[in-house]
Amino acid sequence: MKQVKHLRRPEIPYSSHSIERRRMKRTRASFGIMYSGVNGDDVFIGDGSAVDLSEGGLGILGNCPVKIGMELTLFLYLLDEEEPLFVSEAMVAWTSGSLFGMEVKEVSLHDGDRMLSFLRDQAVSQA
Predict the structure, then answer these.
(1) What is the pLDDT of residues 30-75, one digit of tens each?
(2) Which residues, other chains included, contact 28 with Cβ-Cβ below 8 Å and sequence gap of 6+?
(3) Gap between the Cα atoms of 55 and 2, Å rounded
(4) Separation between Cα atoms, residue 29 and residue 50, nearest integer Å
């Protein structure tokens, strides 16, 4: 059976009345992304690039429109390795034109650890 990592949720409460709903600090990032999902009866594939990343999500500038609540599969082409990082389940949290935010729902233990390691490295290089 394949091990799956559910990314942890922060224990910091937040106000649902606040405009800023992010629960985790995002770090600026720039790497390629391919995403796919289902819209009605159609399967679509889009390309884009990450604009920021956190333990629980990422911002994407994409070439294929998405809607809030859509579930997508993501391939993240991080700069650290040749093989793309695979996110088996992510949900669109917000959209603004071709920019949209994803909440990561499910990722393998290996890829979850890679994502956290990449995030730490990015935070250190930006400090």
Answers:
(1) 899 999 999 889 999 999 999 999 888 999 999 999 999 999 999 9
(2) 51, 52, 122, 126
(3) 21
(4) 6
CATH number of 26-126: 2.40.10.220
Q: Compute the distance between CA of residue 30 and CA of residue 71 in angstroms, rounded to an integer.
A: 22
Contact 36, 72 (CB under 8 A): yes
Query: pTM above the 0.85 mark?
Result: no
Domain ranges in the chain? 26-126
Q: Rounded CA gap, 96 and 88, in Å?
A: 23
Structure tokens given for 25: 């600090």
Q: What is the pLDDT of residues 79-116, one digit of tens each?
A: 876 799 999 999 999 999 999 999 999 999 999 998 88
E strand or H helix at 9: none
